[in-house]
């Protein structure tokens, strides 16, 4: 790296960090204000009480019934409400699967 | 096969008969008691996976998820006693799980949800105060040679799919309408205080942060990263309290 680019990038870094600190100061000051949604937006957080994963307080207890393994391998979640450019219905790639079963 | 090994094997495979030599205290049929115990073992592990991968479960539906998780439990029983660690390689299992191939972003969703659980349980670390970071501005030459230490919860995920948008949609009404699924996204996962947060960041910003995490100096990290907004990226890291150290690079050229 030449001395010039080194100086340039050092200057750019100082400017960037300086402005980052002022942005961070503003966002911290307005942390409670939900309307402060710019550029990066607000963080996305999980709503689930179980968000800390298994073994945390809301983990369920095991069922005692014995269930046979009678299930079909056809995903039935929200996938089917998903837009798909390639699908004739405009929705999810699971339609073909469902048609087959 | 030892008695213990036979018992453990039968515990994981519902197709296997009750191990020989079992007795029940009240004279009940050992096979039916064993079936209940086996069911409890498998259900508790499947429940653990469902707790750690709630959006994966929503994406494929409960029935499919529990069936898939059940096969995982049989093939990958716990290797340690920490239940929140269980299922670390569930994403890799999903990658190879043929029936899930119709949901191509499922494995990456599992990766994102795993990073969130990891972030929850990552060690605490004291972030630098803004004044401490500002102090680095006084010496521009030294600044460019600085390396950055991040909070242990910080992690990145690069996906060929809109995995963050899909995840975010499932925190609300679970409709994916309007999301372009094959629009790749870069996720930044971190814990700010007690809250785990997920951000969609530019590819360049992701590369920059990854470079820093690999121990590169600020200048080095910038050199190989595609164009991105450096100020916004640094502001994001600062305001979410994940910068814990600024080190002077020991091996200067």
Gap from first CA to last CA of chain A: 62 Å
* Quaternary structure state of the chains depicted: heterodimer
Tell me the number of helical segments of chain A per DSSP (H or I, 4 or more residues long).
2
Helix content of chain A: 25-40%
What's the average pLDDT of chain B? Answer: 91
In this structure, how is the largest beta sheet of chain B organized? 3 strands, antiparallel
CATH class of the largest domain in chain B: Alpha Beta
Structural class from helices and strands of chain B? alpha+beta
Look at the helices and sheets of chain A and give the structural class: mainly alpha
How many E strands of chain B? 5
What's the total number of strands of chain A? 0
**For the report, how would you describe the main beta sheet of chain A?**
none
Helix content, binned percent of chain B: 40-55%
Gap from first CA to last CA of chain B: 61 Å
Reading the helices and strands of chain A in chain order gives HH
Strand coverage percent of chain B: 5-15%
Features:
heterodimer, A: 101 residues, mainly alpha, 2 helices, 33% helix, elongated, B: 253 residues, alpha+beta, Outer Surface Protein A, domain 3, three-stranded antiparallel β-sheet, two-stranded antiparallel sheet, 48% helix, signal (chain A), DUF2282_membr (chain A)
Quick recap:
Chain A is mostly helical and about 100 residues long.
Task: Describe this protein's structure.
- The complex is a heterodimer of chains A (101) and B (253).
- Chain A has 101 residues and is an all-alpha fold.
- Chain A contains 2 helices and no strands.
- In chain A, 33% of the residues lie in helices and 0% in strands.
- Chain B has 2 domains: 103 residues, no CATH class; 129 residues, Outer Surface Protein A, domain 3 (Alpha-Beta Complex).
- Chain B contains 12 helices and 5 strands.
- In chain B, strand 3 and strand 4 form a beta hairpin.
- Chain B is elongated, with a radius of gyration of 23 Å.
- The termini of chain B are far apart.
- Chains A and B meet through helix 1 of A and helix 2, helix 3, helix 4, helix 6 and helix 7 of B.
